[in-house]
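Is pyridoxal-5'-phosphate placement plausible here? Inputs below.
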Amino acid sequence: MGPFDAVKRTVVEACLDLAGRGYLAGIGGNVALRAGENCFAVTPSAADYYSMKPEDVVILDLTTLAVLEGERSPSVESALHAKLLRARPDLNASVHTHQPVASAMALLNRAIPLEDPEERAALGAQVAITPYGPSGTGMLARAFGRTLRADVNAYLLRNHGVVCGGEDMARAIRNVALVERAAARHLEQNVRARTPKGLAATLRERVLASLQAELRARIPAAHSGRIEVRARRAPNNVMKIEKPGKPAPVAASAVSQWPDTDDVFRRLKALLKLPPRGLRPENRARVMEYFETRCRKSRTISEEAARYIPGGVQHNLAFNYPFPLAINQARGAYLRDVDGNQYIDFLQAGGPTLLGSNYEPVQKKVIELIKDCGPVTGLLHEYEHKLAAEVGRHMTGIEMFRMLGSGTEGVMAAIRLARAYTGKKRVVKIGGGYHGWSDQMVYGMRIPGAGAREATGIPAGCLDYTQECFPNDIAALKRKLRLNQLRGGTAAVIVEPFGPESGTRPIYFEYNRQVRELCDQFGALLIFDEVVTGFRAGLGGAQGYFGVQPDITVFGKCLTGGYPMAGGIGGRREIMMLLAGGISAMGKRAFVGGTLSANPLSCAAGYFSLQAMERTNAAVKAGQAGDRLTRGLKEIIERRGLPYVVYNQGSIVHLQTSAVLLLSMRNPIKVLREAKERKHVMEEMGAAYTAHGLITLAGSRIYTSLADTDAVIDRALDRFDAVFALT
Ligand code: PLP
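Reply from A.M.:
I modeled the complex. C-alpha cells:
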C-alpha cells in the first residue's frame, strides 16, 4: 500500500463516473485531487477512462509540477488544476470536462447567471468565463488563474469545456452536473426569448419543445431534476466516493443516450408507409429448411406440447414461427436446443436475466438455500427484508416493499393501493402499453386506441374505470384528468417509463416529468411500471434515470434475476402501509397476498442478483452491448439500403422490420388491412434470425445482458448481416 493509493483510486473512480455520465465526451477531460501537503494527483495524458488503473494516476508537486510518483505523463492541463488548488485552499478536487451543453455555452462565450438557490449555494453567483487560451498551454492556465474567484466554483473555458472545483471529489462532480443543468436551462431560456413572436404559437411551442427534448436527450438524467452525488465503482474495486447524507447507489448510466424520439418516429412512419419488406421468396424455403432438417426433436416436442397446452406454449414469448424450439441448456449469452443447435440469446427470458442466463454465483446461493430450507416454508425468512432493503437502497423513494408473484400481480396491487389511498377509482394507462393480464389492464394493449378489443372473457364492468391515452400526448392526458376531476377524480396514471411495450413507442425524455406534474396537479398517484426497466435502466430504475419520483413502483422480471415469482411493489411508507398485513388487519386496508409471495427462494435469488448486478455493473455493461449492437445494425441497414429501423434504450434494442407494432387506431383501416401481413413479416424475420443462430423476442426486440461481450455482439452482427442479405 502506498500513501497515495486511496487518492488515486478516487481519481479513477471519478473518471469512470464522469465518463459514464457523458461529461468526458469529445476530446476528454481530466481530474485532479489534492493528495497531501503541497501535492496533488492528476489523470495521465491521453487517459482511457474505462481502462485506467490507479497506478496510471500521477502525483505532482503543487508548486513546481514536478512528478513525484507515476510512470505516465501527467495531463496537459495539470497547470490549470494546480492554479485552482493553489488559489483555493478550501477546495480539494478539480475536474475539467467537455460536458456537451455547458461546452456549447463556452463556445458562445456566455457566462451563466445562477438563480436557483441550490446552484448558487454550490457554484456561486454565476458560472464565470475564462478567456481563450489553447488547450494544454501556460496561456490558458494563466488566463484561468486570472479569472479565479474565491466565491465561484465553476468556470467555462472560452475555448473548450468546463472546470469545477469542490471541497471533495463528490462535490466537484455534483458541481459539474449542476453546471450542465444550469447551462441547459439558460440555453433554453435564451432560445425562448429569441424565438420570433410572429411565429404561430403552436409552431413556436413545437420548436421549443423539440429543443427541450434535444437538450434532455443529450444530457444525463441527473440534470432534469434533483442532482444527487452518485458513486460508480472502479473496476478493480471498491472505494466509494465520499458523499453527503445517505449512501447513494452505484451510478447507473445504463442508457448512454436517450434516442432522438422525433427521429425514431419519423423513420418508423416512413417504414409504415412502405409495403413490408421481408425475406425474398426464394430465401424463405432456405430458412424453413433449417427448421425441417435441424430442429426435428424440437418439432416432436412442440407437437406433443400442443396436445396438452393451449396453443402449444405456456407463454407467448416461447411461440416462435414456425414452431417453438425446446431448449435444454442456457448459459450466459447462449442457449442450446434439444437438437444441439446453439444460439446467441437475445431473448434473455423476456428481460429478467440481466446477468446473463443461469448466472453461476446466484445459482450457487439459490441451491444452498434450497438445501437448507427448501423453496418455501410459509414463515418469515431473512432474505425477505434483505431484498426489500436492497431495493430501497437503490431507489431512494422506496421506503417499503411488498413481494408478489409476478408483474401482473404487482400492477393489480399497485392499482388497488392507489384507489385505497386516494379514494378515487379511475386509472389512466398509456395506449399500447402492457401491464400484465389482469381484468382491468387488458385495455388499449399493443395498439393505442384499441380499448377493450382484446378483452375477451372480461365483463365490460371490469373496465369501467380504466382509460387510455395516446402515448406522448400530454395535452390529451391533461384533458382526461380534468374531465375525470368532474367525475370523482383519478386514482392513478400508470406508465411504462421507457414508453409503451418496453419502449417500442419511445417517449420524449421529458414526458415522465410532465406526467408527474399532471398527477400532482390533479391529485392522482403516479405508478411507474418498472417490470422491464427495473433494473435494466440501472439499479435506480427508470426513476433514477429520468430523475422522476413515482408514488408507487411495480417490479417484476429482473427483481429475482430470472428465478420464479418475480413481482413486487414499493413506495412511500404512508401509502404502502395501506396494504393488508396479518390476519388482524382491520380498517382501511387494501388486501393483497399469495401463498408463495415472499418465498425464500425468490427473495434470496433477488437479493443475490441485485448484489451481483451492482458488483458487476451489469446494467451499464449490458447497455454498452446494446449500444454496440445498435451501432452495428444501423451500419448494416444503411449499407444494404434497407428501410428497417433500429434504436436502443441501453440493453433494450428495438429492431423494426415491418413496424407492425407501430400501427395505431388513429388509422383503423390501415390496421385492418395491414396488421396481419406485417405481423407475418416480423415473425418470418424472427425465424430467419433463429435459423442463423440468433434468438430474439418475436423478431423485433433484443435484450442484451452482462454476458454479451464485444466478441458476442460482433458474432451476432455477422449473423444479422447474413439474414439481411436474404431480404
Ligand atoms: N408490466 C410490464 C411493463 C411488462 O412488460 C410485463 C410483462 O412482460 C408485465 C407488467 C407483466 O409481468 P408478468 O409477466 O410477470 O406478469
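Short version: Confidence is low (pLDDT under 50) at residues 220-252.
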